[in-house]
Write a structure and sequence with these properties.
By secondary structure, the protein is mostly helical. The chain is built from five helices and no strands.
Length: 122
């Protein structure tokens, strides 16, 4: 009887731990999706930060200048690396397309085009 109670207690304790882990994982996934949506568009991100911080017009202009300079810095750092990154991506896409059925390949291409349109809209 004691052994059965011990097993039951261990089972319930493990279920509590598993439930807590699943809850944390679900929260992180949901939070990540929400943050990705909120921060995806640079203009809305700037607007949100400016609004939440209550920046006046002069602060907003300086804030935008700082972020513009940061983006130019990122672009200049990425320029020499971009061709290598693009070639790695192209090779991976070709391998993926080679393993897909014709129907899957068509859907994959549609997904890629939609993703590119989303990038261009930013």
């Amino acid at each position: 009887m004691t052994r059965t109670k011990g097993k039951a207690l261990a089972f319930y304790a493990s279920m509590v731990v598993v439930g807590a882990i699943l809850g944390i994982v679900a929260d992180r996934v949901i939070l990540r999706e929400r943050l990705a949506r909120e921060w995806r568009d640079p203009r809305s991100m700037r607007e949100r930060i400016s609004t939440e911080l209550g920046l006046d017009a002069a602060q907003r202009a300086r804030f935008d200048s700082i972020l513009d300079a940061r983006n130019r810095g990122y672009d200049s750092l990425m320029a020499p690396v971009r061709p290598s990154l693009d070639s790695v991506g192209t090779a991976a896409r070709q391998e993926i397309q080679a393993m897909l059925t014709p129907e899957q390949r068509t859907r994959y291409d549609e997904m890629r085009r939609a993703r590119e349109r989303g990038r261009q809209e930013r």
